[in-house]
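Bumping my old thread because nobody answered last time. Still need a sequence for this structure:
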């Protein structure tokens, strides 16, 4: 029987951030943002360019759906 070694599409770090993202709902509160920041900062250095791009796409959505507009600047990576 032939076997094939499967290679995961995404890293464990990306899966961890994705799991957090899946657990929160808009409108995003300061608590949601702080949790996201913690997960993203922990994972950032080990994410691939594509994984970062996908998370940054979520950040764009998060910015549009914060509970209060002034919270957008508190999201990691937003200047």
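Sorry it took so long. Here it is:
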């Amino acid at each position: 029987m032939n076997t094939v070694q499967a290679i995961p599409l995404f890293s464990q770090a990306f899966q961890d951030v994705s799991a957090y993202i899946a657990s929160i709902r808009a409108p995003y509160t300061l608590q949601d943002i702080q949790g996201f920041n913690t997960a993203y900062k922990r994972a950032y250095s080990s994410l691939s360019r594509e994984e970062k791009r996908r998370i940054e796409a979520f950040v764009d959505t998060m910015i549009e759906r914060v509970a209060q507009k002034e919270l957008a600047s508190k999201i990691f990576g937003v200047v």
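Residues 49-64 form the longest helix (16 residues). Let me know if any region looks off to you.
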